[in-house]
Each structure stands twice: as structure tokens, then as C-alpha cells.
Amino acid sequence: MPFESNTYDLFTMSFGIRNCTHPEKVVREAFRVLKPGGQLAILEFSEVNSALKPIYDAYSFNVIPVLGEILASDRESYQYLVESIRKFPNQDEFARIIREEGFGHVRYENMTFGVCSIHKGTKPRK
């Protein structure tokens, strides 16, 4: 990112990091541009609660692409959405990436039974 290091108090991203080829590089850049004590918050689709997984998978693979075709004449983009969600690291794996890139107080909160989650971390003060 073309920003100076240690500049920002907050870095946020919603439903975008799973589209990045190297999400760890995005987290690393967020760490670089944040001031010490700065906050990271990333909202992303996640691994759904195991009790809902069969229903959610059936909906995701069979309904979402069809809706994309009907509503937007674009089945492929909605198929990509479903596939990109499956390929993205689960909550614990993504939290590990955030931690490995230097953030402290790393945590996540599942929303809607894990359909999405918000990941948070703090850049340590010097």
C-alpha cells in the first residue's frame, strides 16, 4: 500500500481478503501502516457451525449460483463466491496468520453461526 508506516489508527476490510492471492501479505501491510496500538478488524465469510454445515453447503452450492444466474445473469461470479469462501482459511487458521504477522490480542467473533466472522488484532505498542 502506498502509505507511510505507522500512520493509521484503524485498518478495516469487509468481504475482500478472501479475494487476495496472499492474505498474509495484506495482514503484513496492515501491520506496517498501523500505529503502535492500532487496531485491525477484518470481516469475512467463515466456516459455518458444524450443525448447519450440511444445510449451508446445500444452499451454497445449489441455490446461490442459480440465484446469480436468475438475478444477475452471472452464475460464474456466484459460483466463484461459494468456492472462494471454501478455500479461505477457517477462523482459527486466519487468526494464526494475523498472530504470525505480529498482531497481539488476536481474536474473532462468529456471526450468524459462523457464516461470517470478524477478526481483530492490535499492533503492540513499542
UniProtKB/TrEMBL annotation:
Domain of life, source organism: Eukaryota
GO BP: methylation
Record flagged with keyword Iron-sulfur: no
Molecular-function GO term, any one: 2-methoxy-6-polyprenyl-1,4-benzoquinol methyltransferase activity
Keywords, alphabetical: Methyltransferase, S-adenosyl-L-methionine, Transferase
Listed Pfam families: Ubie_methyltran
Gene3D superfamilies: Vaccinia Virus protein VP39
Subunit structure: Component of a multi-subunit COQ enzyme complex, composed of at least COQ3, COQ4, COQ5, COQ6, COQ7 and COQ9. Interacts with PYURF; the interaction is direct, stabilizes COQ5 protein and associates PYURF with COQ enzyme complex.
NCBIfam families on file: MenG_MenH_UbiE
PANTHER family: 2-METHOXY-6-POLYPRENYL-1,4-BENZOQUINOL METHYLASE, MITOCHONDRIAL, METHYLTRANSFERASE
Protein name: CBN-COQ-5 protein
